[in-house]
Design brief:
This protein is α/β, with parallel strands linked by helices and 547 residues long. 27% of the residues lie in helices and 23% in strands. It has 3 domains: 244 residues, ANL, N-terminal domain (Rossmann fold, 3-Layer(aba) Sandwich); 73 residues, Luciferase, domain 3; 100 residues, 2-Layer Sandwich (GMP Synthetase, Chain A, domain 3). It binds adenosine-5'-diphosphate. Adenosine-5'-diphosphate binds next to strand 14, strand 19 and strand 20.
């Protein structure tokens, strides 16, 4: 054993124990990047100075509402500037920003708001009709603060309902330093709360801390990773409620990049127009959204694009290559989970791939990438828990640890998502190669067991998605008396195209083993999505069972 193991007399350094806080991000943006802009839907345009001035009013406004320090405060909002103000003011004043998924069923919504014991809900005016019917079943919520969003949805006459802008007008701007108020505070204070979607069982709350958020922010800012800089214009298409929009809002503020927020519309033309008009250089979205933009990519000048981030589910290589052809920039894979703040790994090629063939580079870009600094990953045998080699071949459950990885769930006690030595079990199957690249094979629960062998639904989907007329595809297992399970593909074709199952099978035959070919290809007009816009295989399985 090393002499250093357990040495109690090791010496402390003499550096300042200043806590890592979101308060610093707010004040840095105010001091250094006052002139930079936050734009919502191409119309609402404010400088960081104006935004932080309103954050200062909101800080006092929260006191006027008697919101206790440590209270959870929910946001039920799209990606807009007022939501960003809440992203800043709540943690900067030691309240906890609880971003609630606006697409949840009322049952999950009520469970989450009650479980979090949210004190106040801030809600976009146009979204009020989705949550207000549940208000009486959320008895702990004292105030409902409506964020003006340009819509004119009726607002019920109820004393619990307040107007956000009126609250800010009533509140004097806080004149002090948010950061100083943290000087003696613990950087491990909670800053944000986000529930995983809970496809099985109850949603689980992931409680971020100031420290984890700042470190995650720095981790993604590193050059060679997302590498946000002052000259970027960042567009988080990924919703603010999807794991802090992958850290892009805090990252943009920390780097001094401008932010372009899409507002409530996910219409492909709207998104592409924004990217073109605002000269967006960095954008992040799930693959289904990237795929929806494909037919119109050629109509827009996207020459400002520098980095496109794709995550949440596997980005088919063909989709990434379509973007590379159209914009010069592929979609860079990012692997993450709500529990990992969310970014754990970033893909793309490195110097060692410079001499590689085009095909080899495409294969590298298809991998989920290398872990971020400070993040550790390992793969283990699902049955035995034994560590597996990093040889690019052994497939095991991916486990992860690091300072922005959850150590447990909010108010849940022990959970088998964590190993005895404190690592997070991701539920993903992966390989890790000698360069440390992760390659996700599938989610454990999505893998198809056929005749004692495994079929990766992700690989089959990538093969089918490589057909230019396929807009969306999901492959699930169908129970089979002989083989245990067989793959079935659900496909949405692009508008105006028409293909038979045989044609698609012919297309993928050279790409996959014969016994991998789906037993059935079912054409659909759309596929069910989760609240975060990913394809929902659990809903497909459910409807396949019923149908
Ligand atoms: P949910 O489980 O509700 O979808 P998350 O958004 O936290 O919530 O999803 C995390 C999961 O998404 C990961 O465990 C993994 O299965 C999948 N995922 C995330 N990023 C990628 C990626 N780049 N490639 C493939 N799968 C991904």
């Amino acid at each position: 054993m090393l002499r250093s193991a357990g040495a109690a007399d090791a010496m402390d350094g003499l550096m300042q124990p200043r806590p890592l806080t979101i308060a610093h991000i707010v004040e840095r943006a105010e001091r250094l990047y006052a002139h930079k802009c936050v734009t919502t839907a191409g119309a609402d345009r404010h400088t960081y100075a104006e935004v932080v001035h309103r954050v200062r009013r909101l800080a006092t406004g929260l006191d006027l509402l008697d919101v206790p320090v440590g209270a959870r405060v929910a946001t039920f909002a799209c990606n807009n500037r007022r939501h960003l103000e809440l992203y800043l003011a709540l943690p900067a004043t030691k309240r906890v920003l609880h971003t609630v998924n606006i697409r949840l069923s009322s049952e999950h919504l009520e469970y989450i708001v009650n479980h979090a014991e949210d004190d106040v809900v801030f809600v976009d005016r146009r979204l009020l009709p989705r949550i207000w019917p549940s208000a009486d079943r959320m008895p702990r919520v004292r105030h409902w603060v409506v964020l003006p969003d340009g819509s004119d949805h009726p607002i019920p006459a109820d004393p619990r309902i307040l107007d956000y802008d009126e609250l800010l007008m009533r509140a004097d701007p806080f004149a002090g330093s948010f950061e100083d108020a943290f000087a003696s505070a613990d950087e491990n204070l909670a800053s944000g709360l986000c529930y995983t979607s809970g496809t099985t069982g109850r949603p689980k709350g992931v409680l971020y801390s100031h420290r984890s958020t700042v470190l995650h922010c720095l981790g993604t800012l590193a050059a060679g990773l997302i590498g946000l800089s002052e000259s970027d214009v960042v567009m988080p298409i990924v919703p603010f409620f999807h794991a802090n929009a992958w850290g892009l809002p805090y990252g943009a503020l920390m780097a001094g990049a401008s932010l372009t927020l899409p507002g409530h519309s996910a219409d492909p033309v709207h998104l592409l127009q924004l990217m073109e008009a605002e000269r967006v250089s960095v954008a992040g979205a799930v693959p289904t959204v990237w795929s929806s933009l494909v037919p119109r990519l050629g109509n827009h000048d996207l020459s400002a694009t520098r980095f496109l981030l794709g995550g949440g589910s596997a980005v088919p290589p063909s989709l990434s290559e379509t973007y590379r052809a159209a914009t010069g920039v592929p979609i860079t894979h990012s692997w993450g989970m709500t529990e990992v703040s969310p970014v754990g790994a970033i893909g793309g090629t490195r110097t060692q791939h410079r001499g590689a063939t085009e095909e080899e580079q495409v294969a590298v870009r298809a991998a989920q990438g290398q872990p971020l600094p400070l993040v550790n990953v390992r793969i283990v045998d699902v049955e035995t828990g034994r560590a597996l080699p990093r040889d690019g071949h052994a497939v095991g459950e991916l486990q992860v640890s690091g300072p922005w990885v959850a150590s447990g769930y909010f108010r849940r006690g022990a959970d088998d998502s964590f190993t005895d030595d404190g690592w997070l079990r991701t539920g993903d199957l992966a390989t890790i190669d000698a360069d440390g690249y992760l390659r996700l094979v599938d989610r454990i629960k999505d893998l198809i067991k056929s005749g004692g062998e495994w079929i990766s639904s992700v690989e089959l989907e990538a093969a089918i998605a490589s057909h230019p007329d396929v807009a969306e595809v999901a492959v699930i297992a169908r129970p089979d008396p002989r083989w245990t399970e067989r793959p079935v593909a659900y496909v949405v074709l692009r508008d105006g195209s028409d293909h038979t199952a045989e044609e698609l099978l012919r297309h993928i035959t050279p790409m996959v083993a014969k016994w991998w070919l789906p037993d059935d290809i079912v054409f659909m007009t759309s596929l069910p999505k989760t609240g975060t816009g990913k394809l929902s295989k659990s809903s497909l399985r459910e409807s396949a069972r019923i149908g």
